[in-house]
Every structure is written in C-alpha cells, then in structure tokens.
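Record passed on here:
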Amino acid sequence: MSTDNKSGFLAKSTIKAADLDHRRKINFNIGRYNSVVPQGKLQFSDLELARERAKNIKWRAIETLDQQLESFEANFTARGGKVIWAETADQAREAILRICQEKNCKTLVKSKSMVTEEIKLNEFLEAHHIDSVETDLGEYIQQLDGESPYHIVTPAMHKSKEDVAKLFAEKLGTDPKLNPQELTLEARARLREKYIQAEVGVTGANFLISDIGGIAVTENEGNARLSCAWPSTHIVVVGIEKMIPSVADLALFWPLLATYGTGQWLTVYNSIVSGPRLAGEKDGPDEMIVILLDNGRTNLLANPKTRESLYCIRCGACLNACPVYKNIGGHSYGTTYSGPIGSVITPHLKGMDEWKHLSHASSLCGNCTEVCSVKINLHELLLENRAEAVQEGYSSFTERMAWKGWKFAMMKRKWMNKGRAGIKDWVVNRMVKGWNTHRSDLHFPEKSFNQIWRDKHPTD
C-alpha cells in the first residue's frame, strides 16, 4: 500500500508541477493572500509575543488534554448538550448515522469542516441515501465538481472565476458568463432552500472551549451559523486537539487565525455555541451533540517529539508559504491535510508505513516554521518523521545500504578523495536513480579540496 500511495503522489505531483495554467492560478491566489497578510499583522503591537503566547496556551491545553476534555464535557452537558467520544472515523460516522436515522433525516446541511472531510462523511451519508450538502461556497464548488478540498482554508483555490462559471453552467444550468457576485447569489439562493429542508446540521469547530463547555466557530459567510441554528439537530464533529482552556483565549486566537488564514483583522462571523436552545431563547437547535474525534491524534499526543503538531489551529499559512505545495497543489498529496502540516501529521494519523513519503515532500527551507501562527517547528518535525520511519524499519534495503556507504565515505577523508572526477560523475549521474531526472548532471572538480589546499599552501 505504501508503494501505491507514494507512486500516486509522484505521478500527480509530476503532472501538476508541469501544469503552467495551474501554477498561474495558484500564484495569483497566493499572491493576493501575501498582499493582505501584512495588513492583518498590523493589529498586533508585538506579533512575536502574540505567537509565543498562543503556542504556550496550546502547550498547556495539549499537556493537560485529558483534564480539559473532561471539563468541557461536564460544562457542555450541564447546559443540555450531549457528548460522544469517537476513537475512530468509523465510530464517528456510525454515531452520525444513528442520529440521522432517529431524526428520519433526508437532507443534511454542513458547514466547512476539514475533520468531516477526514472521515469521508459526505460519501458515507450518500451511501445511506442522505443528501449531505456543503454550504460553504468553496466547499459547494468542490462538491459540485466531485473534488475534495484543495486547501484547508480556501477549498477551491485552484479554480479561476471562469472555471467556476463553467462548472455552474454545466451542473446548474446557469449562464456561463456570470461574474463572481452573480455566482455567489446563485449559490446562496439554492442553498437557502436546503436549510429549510434539512433536519440535521453538521459543523466543525475552530476551538473547543474547556471552561464554558462551548465551541467557537469563525467564518466569513454565515453558513455555519445557519447550519447551527436552523435545523432542529446540530452535530459538531471536532478533533480533540482543538481545545483551548478558556473563553478569554479567543481574544488572542480569533485575530491570530484571521490574520494568518485570510489576512483579516477578524473574520465576519464569530460564534460561540454552548448547547441547544434553552427555555426563553428564540433560536437554536432542539438538540446539540458534540462528537470528540481521536482517529490517530493520541498517536501524536503519545509522541513527545511530534506532539507539538497538535498545536496547529489550521490557518493554512504553511501551505501558502511552501514552495513544494505551490508547485504540486493540494490534491497531489492524496490525503485530507496537505502541505507541511499535513506531511507532519498524516503519517501518524494514518500510518507511517503507508505515508512516510510525505515527509520527504519538502525542501526543508524552513519557511513553514517561519510563518506558523503558533510557532510549530514544522521543518524539524518533518526531519523527525524521516528519522522515525528509518528507526521503525520502513526504509528499503537499497536505501539503507546507500546511506551506509555514504556515511562510510563521508567519515573518512581518504575515501572522499578516492576516484577520479569522471568516475564520481558516472556514479552519481548514472547509478543514483532519479538524481538527474529533473536536474542537470552533476560534475565533480578534477582536484579534491585537499589537493587544491596543498597547491595553494605548498609549505603547510
């Protein structure tokens, strides 16, 4: 299976890297992001201090995660909510299906949620004859096109406005010359009908708030609020790592997520939901259930070196900064979480043996670490993954022998100096598989460093 995933990744990335139209669209959209993020950063009097404080808060939340989760459950259930603990994706899907069947649900509306993409919820519900409708515009576009999200913040980043107009014309019968505003209004008119029909609404959560037993959702379209409040049943699917200790922490995390996610000072809609509608309240669901998903996260939690990756608040900044992501795109990774953070966490969530190759999908330039909103050492964690894969025996015999030979030669100067330049050229350019597939041939100098030194310093 590992070979299949790796070969698929290499095939897709090779095609995308040579697709100049794809690169043009990505550069345009990331260019717009890069132009507004500096403006968002101006709201912080000391940005580095804000990032450091955010990291420390997430450190506290993750180091005491068992206590924080129990506190969340106690506070949330005290207000009439229900909590379901799901160890695997199967358990989460089955729990959602049971709720839908109890409610005789035929239509379900869903706001943008990467964790529901992770458990393949739409496909599962469709197999059980439940219409699951994405209500975020970008997710709606991707659902119409039969594609998964391309980016964890902007799902349709790889599509131009002309691509979307053509897609709407093909799928919805609209005028292929509609502009972005007209396309948005068309989607809104269709989706509003779905809210009226839906018996169940599903959302994710940007944060779990321990001290009040609530969820925090930040968005720009209002579709998550409608998914929360309009249907009679509201289901929240959220990874256990989304925990923050206090509602007061949102004063830091909401602006930080907005700035690094979209360049805004604050997103348009910021909601805290702490349970179903109570007596005297005018809106909200009759029932609210939070599904706390593990699905491999405790593998990261148990690993003292990679635990830091659970601090991630899914701002997507590392994807936008990564030269590999910008060349091969989000779909090449073949998994829900792409880019540097995806390459760090996926091998632990889904299996090191099958996904270790993603940790090599990096130039190790360190730009991902530089831009991370909570200062995760992403490039170091990618190296840690590579080391763990070797330690756990997932490297090939050929790879192990090659590195053993390289180490032997590099540890002894006389072995480094052995062989004429032409022989070294032949070994690297012809024997090392793949070296010059996308590179020009490497040519060693005729003289070694020692020989050049002796020529320049004959008396030494």
Q: What stands out?
A: The chain has 23 helices and ten strands. Residues 1-42+315-395 form one domain. The chain has a mean pLDDT of 93.
